[in-house]
């Protein structure tokens, strides 16, 4: 009986031990699984952060490159200003040298004349000089000489005083010019220091991006697809407008022809066209009315004078056409417009009078607005809010929408702006008054 009891107890102990071991193993496995899931989640988060960071770094690099260009332009302008100040300084120094030489000569001549007649300063000596004349005529000449000498002395004293004042004025001008020069030199030093800081930051970003080449390429490929989709949509909308305008022109021509035939049969004079005449400047191009043609010509004549398509501070961080990145040889961008970075809350505005033809949404570009100016079109993309609708007439500098600020990129605010003539994309920069 005791033996049986011992066996049962032993089996119980073994069972408990087995359960405990099994429970511990389960806990260990659960812990491993939890750690594995956390590791996966962490890795996934890091990958997403790396991808986002790669694109952010490129945006930061583009902004730094634009800022460096601006700093170099500032330094070039300051160097030109310093050069002009140096020229002014040399001219003023030459004038001061000439004035000092001339003034010293006048002072010396004046002093010599005074010394020559020093003994005749008293009234008695002057009278004796006149009365000691051998004749009346000589007395008259001596009186006239004394008068002329007195007048000359006063005149010379005035000239010397005026020249002294002019010299002091030039010296003050020189001091002011030198102060201006020192101020400009200080600005140049400050600009040069900022340029060095920006170039240092640029190198750091470039080094970081070289480690993230694959991630960046993937992001850029996605952006290229979005840009291509935007261009296809714009081309589609332009083609639709051209077909609609051509159809209106055809109907107007048919109506005018029918009205003319009816008038001919009735013996009346040909009546006016039943519709507004539309004509295109190119085959298959947009058929314009007379007013649209005038608007198109006016737009063309304002090349280089169009206002920026946004209000407030800005910086062009993306340029038109195919661009090989200066620092990253593997990065090539082919843009149909320009990217203008600004501050959060900034609104986009029309660059010229026109008519809103389309408002649409595209992935990666948020809302876009197309404004027609005759056979020219301007496109404003990446708007978070739109203030206009299709059919609205807009005027130059009229706000048309608020530019989107990306919260995942520190509220990075960029307007994508395009300019087309018919179906041809144009570089907007030469058209804008920057």
TrEMBL record:
Renumbered to this chain, the signal peptide range is 1-20
InterPro entries, alphabetically?
Cell_wall_metabolism_enzyme, Dup_hybrid_motif, M23ase_b-sheet_dom
Q: Where on the tree of life does the source sit, at the highest rank?
A: Bacteria
Q: Does the keyword Coiled coil apply?
A: yes
Q: Which residues cross the membrane?
A: none
* GO molecular function annotation: metalloendopeptidase activity
Ranges for region Disordered: 254-285
The M23ase beta-sheet core domain, residue ranges: 335-428
Keyword vocabulary terms for this entry:
Coiled coil, Signal
- Supply the name of the protein: Septal ring factor EnvC (AmiA/AmiB activator)
Which species is the source of this protein? Coprobacter fastidiosus NSB1 = JCM 33896
